[in-house]
Write a structure and sequence with these properties.
The protein has nine helices and 16 strands. With 326 residues, it is α+β, with helices and mostly antiparallel strands. The chain has two domains: 157 residues, Phosphorylase Kinase, domain 1, CATH 3.30.200; 116 residues, ATP-grasp fold, B domain (D-amino Acid Aminotransferase, Chain A, domain 1, 2-Layer Sandwich). The strands form four sheets. Strands 8, 9, 12, 13, 14, 15 and 16 form a seven-stranded antiparallel beta sheet that branches. It has a five-stranded antiparallel beta sheet with strand order 1-2-3-7-6. Strands 4-5 form a two-stranded antiparallel sheet. The two termini are 39 Å apart. The mean pLDDT is 94.
Amino acid sequence: MLDRSRLEAALTRTLDRTDLSLPGAFHGKVRDGFDLPGGARLLVASDRISAFDHELGTIPFKGQILTAFCDHWFKRIEGVLPHHYLGRVDPTAIACVKCEPLSVEFVVRAYATGTTGTSLWTAYEKGDRVFCGHVLPEGLKKHQRLEKPILTPTTKAPKGHHDESVSRAQILERGLMDAATFDAAEKLALELFRLGQEDCAKQGLMLVDTKYELGRKPDGTLVIIDEIHTPDSSRFWEAATYEQRLAEGGDPDPLDKDYVRRWLRSVGFAGEGTPPALTAEVRMEAALRYAKAFERITGKPFEDDLEEPKTRIERNVAAWVTAHPA
């Protein structure tokens, strides 16, 4: 586990943005992308963190932890489910096959929970009994397990806007995807979620819900892309205390990035106006929780790298390009 001295040293060595002399540059919420020779794509996980649709700064080692998650999960599904992963280039970067992403995100939910506008529980509390085409029973309680995991896709809203939960019928009606593609993607997503739940259960955790990105390789193969089962894309609860917490009328014990959201709320910020600057203590605590999540979920120790990130990334990318000429 990370110790305080290394966390303090890392506070001034975080990766906010990557600028490389490579074509196809793209800067997203968390990842920066670049084209590599031979039809490959470089994805660099920055240390940026956002909440309530605001960018908040950086968390030490966050990008390294997300990259370690990618390496773990894509290797885990090798030979089991199709994916885009080629290998780790740097502690904070991976190489993958360049794919065309599908036009919706695939959210899988196993519990009646959530607080955002697109969450199942928010809709259920308002009286909705059909969510993304799934009929929900009367009498559901907050955080209760659903009869089986369900796929609840969302649109990909432009930056600054909110995603919309949509059904299979709405996706087909809007021409966002054809039926065969949707059904194949649903099968992939539900199988990946089943595998994730099984692995997490072995670590004493519950995989509650998650978001997957899928895309097509140049040959048309449908594959899993982006990231899998990280604190950024998934919700995890402690299995040992779940039943007791519900019996007491409380919330399950989480293992996710909601710590930062809870801190923001505690200082009076819930999305309106200018967010407060994250303190050094909050940034370090968030890093510890990301590292703990990695170790709990994967059963592996997190090994950090304190080298100045931009110089290290440029060196490692150059070495990868040399080893993989077009």
